[in-house]
Structure formats: C-alpha cells, structure tokens
Amino acid sequence: TGELEYTRLEAIGTENILIGGVSVSAERKLLTADGKRIDLWYSHDGHWLQLQSRVKGNRLLSYFRTELPS
C-alpha cells in the first residue's frame, strides 16, 4: 500500500534447517508489523536462507534457498 508501518525485528535463536538436503545451522529472526509475522532464517555469515509467513486462509507461504550460498 505504500503506507509506513513500524516494524520490530527480534532474534529468536539458532536452529537447524535443510538447504538442498543438507542440515545447516541458521539464525532465526522474527519480523512483526501491524499484527503480521514473518519468520526469517539467515546463515551465521549473514546470507538469507528461508522465509515463512501465514497468509490469508491461514495458509503457509514459504521461500527458501535450494542450495547453500557460496
């Protein structure tokens, strides 16, 4: 919408996720804005790895890397 929304980014902790069939240690963060929630995962050196968020109809939207960053 182009409207300004205040956000909050919170470190949740470290967990293992699968990237291309390989278990990788990732830093999980929670981004919240106006009741919306987006979970993000990053490698320890700052590369984006995965995103998940609930959308209309309580469906789960997921974006993820299919291979490790080089």
Task: Describe this entry's structure for a reader.
This protein is an all-beta fold and 70 residues long. 0% of the residues lie in helices and 66% in strands. The chain has no helices and five strands. A five-stranded antiparallel β-sheet has the order 1-2-3-4-5, with no helix packed on it. The model has no long low-confidence stretch (mean pLDDT 94).
Tell me what portion of residues adopts beta-strand conformation.
Answer: over 45%
Low-confidence stretches: none
* Strand order in space, largest sheet: 1-2-3-4-5
What's the helix count? 0
Mean pLDDT: 94
Broad shape: globular
Helix content: under 10%
Radius of gyration in whole Å, from Cα? 13 Å
What multimeric state do the chains show? single chain
Distance between the termini: 35 Å
What pattern of helices and strands is seen along the backbone?
Answer: EEEEE
- Secondary-structure-based class equals mainly beta
Q: Give the total of beta strands.
A: 5
Major β-sheet annotation: 5 strands, antiparallel
Notable characteristics:
70 residues; mainly beta; 5-stranded antiparallel β-sheet; globular
Concise description?
With 70 residues, the protein is mostly beta strands. The chain is built from no helices and five strands.
Write the layout of secondary structure elements.
Blueprint: E1 7-19, E2 22-33, E3 36-42, E4 48-55, E5 59-64
Antiparallel strand pairs: 1-2, 2-3, 3-4, 4-5
